[in-house]
Automatic annotation (TrEMBL):
Keyword Transmembrane applies: yes
Principal location: membrane
Protein name listed in UniProt: Mitochondrial import inner membrane translocase subunit TIM23
Location in the cell: Membrane
Gene Ontology biological process: protein import into mitochondrial matrix
Taxonomic source organism: Leersia perrieri
GO (cellular component) term, any one: TIM23 mitochondrial import inner membrane translocase complex
Residues forming coiled coils: none
Pfam family, one: Tim17
TM ranges: none
Keywords assigned: Membrane, Transmembrane, Transmembrane helix
InterPro entries, A to Z: Tim23-like
GO molecular function: protein transmembrane transporter activity
Length: 201
């Protein structure tokens, strides 16, 4: 599109010549900010109106978040345990290559085992928490967390018999209750990290 017009005089007479000026489109004052041009929203967008008022993660987000955190925590803890075992099994006179190989093998093996166990427990906890919350009409309080922890522990040890299930359920409920009690302390000590972990609340 050519907007400014310059008149040139030639032998045939006056002839207009258009100059291309893309930086100054006709009838459109380009604002200094694209936000003003498109009026982009800054608030989260939801497909359904009721989603706006939800203050918790969905079951899929819970499943992904808890399972990932559980596996990562277990893998790190298992790697540290494996490195400690490798250091304890080291013998005098071994080369650095052998010690490094043993440390990598032990760290990878134990880390993988711990990560798998904690990942499974976290996955069971996420499923149990979503189920209990659904049964309680969306109530997400300490009762839901403790019930989910007890259910996850019992389900994890379901193949070991009723006594093991009860013990694991009690341990899971106690650990979940301790997490509920310690959450305010964690928010006071590390508010930024707590806000990131609890990003939907």
């Amino acid at each position: 599109m050519s907007f400014p017009v310059e008149i040139q005089e030639t032998e045939e007479g006056l002839r207009p010549r258009g100059l291309y000026a893309p930086q100054r489109p006709e009838g459109l004052a380009v604002p200094s900010s694209y936000h003003k041009l498109y009026n982009l929203p800054t608030s989260p967008e939801f497909l359904f109106e009721e989603e706006k008022f939800k203050q918790t993660r969905t079951w899929g987000e819970n499943l992904t978040f808890y399972t990932g955190c559980g596996y990562l925590s277990g893998a790190v803890a298992g790697a540290l345990v494996g490195l400690r075992r490798a250091a304890a099994e080291a013998e005098r006179g071994e080369s650095a290559k052998i010690r490094l190989s043993r440390a990598l093998n032990q760290g990878g093996s134990v880390g993988r085992a711990y990560g798998n166990r904690l990942g499974v427990v976290a996955m069971l906890f996420a499923g149990a928490e979503s189920f209990v919350r659904h049964q309680r009409d969306g109530n997400d309080d300490w009762v839901t967390t403790v019930a989910a922890g007890a259910s996850a522990g019992a389900l994890y040890r379901i193949a070991s018999g009723p006594r093991s299930m009860i013990v694991a359920g009690v341990i899971g409920g106690v650990l979940s209750g301790a997490a509920v009690v310690g959450k305010p302390m964690f928010e006071e000590l590390a508010p930024q990290l707590a806000a990131r972990l609890n990003y939907l609340h």
